[in-house]
Amino acid sequence: MQTARAHLESLLKARKLDVTLTSGSPLDAPALRHDAARADDLAVTGVPALDAALGGGLPRGHLSEIVGGRSSGRTSVVCRALGAAAARDELVALVDTCDRFDPASAAAVGLDLSRLLWIRETGDATRALKAMNLVLQAGGFGLVVLDLSDVALRTVRALPFTTWFRLARVVEGSPTVALLVAVEHVARSSGGATIAMDPVRPDTPAARPGLTRARWTGRSDRARLLQGLATEPRIVGTRR
User: Fold this and answer.
1) Greatest extent of the chain over all pairs of C-alpha atoms, in Å
2) Does residue 28 register a pLDDT over 50?
3) Rounded CA separation 95/138 (Å)
4) Cα distances (angstroms) measured from residue 208 to each of 38, 68, 183, 211, 233
5) Domains, the chain, ranges and CATH?
6) 38-60, pLDDT tens digit by residue?
7) DSSP result, 172-184
C-alpha cells in the first residue's frame, strides 16, 4: 500500500492529471472494483451524534457531501472523519483546492498525518477534480475528501453536472468514502448522504435541530468570550 501511495505521489508531482471529469468524454480507465466491499459498509466519522444520525457512519463506495458556511463546523467534521479512518489503519487523502488545510489543528484532534496524502492546489477547481479522480482510481484509500468550500460559488455551479455522476461512478463498489466539502449542495450518489451544517440566525429558535451553536463565557453581552461551538448537523438524502 505504501508503494502505491508513493507511485501516486510521483504522478501528482509530475502533474500527470490527464484523466478529466469535466469533459464530455467517458473516463479513460474503468472504476476499480472490490468484491469484498459490501454496499452497506459504513465508515465511522468519529463524531458520535453524527454517526447515529447517519445510521452508523458514511457509506463506503458512495459520494457524500458536507455543506455549510464558514464557522459551521464542516472542517472539524472532516478532520474527525480523517482521524477516525487513519485510526483504523486506513490511508486517507485530502484534495485541498485552496490550500487552507491546517495540519497542526488536524493532528490536535487525533489525525495521524503519516497516513494522510495532502494534495495542495491554488484555487483551480478543475485541476483539483482531476486530482480527486486520480486518487480514487488509484484505490487503497479509506476516505478521500475534495474541499471546495473556498471556491467561488459561480465556479462550482459552472461545473457540468455530469462531473459528479462520473465521480460517483469511479468510487462505486469500492471500500472508499468519497466526500465533497462545499458551501452549498453540490452532488451525492444515490446511496450517499448530505450533511448540512446550518448556521444559527438570530431569529432561529434555540430548539431547532441542525444548528451550530456558540458557547460563551462571561455574564453580559459586552463581556463575553467564545468558548466553543456545539454542532448539530442535519442529514439529508441518506437511505438510512
Assistant:
1) 62
2) no
3) 14
4) 35, 16, 21, 7, 11
5) 2-13+38-201+208-236 (3.40.50.300)
6) 445 899 999 888 898 899 999 99
7) TTSSPEEEEEESS
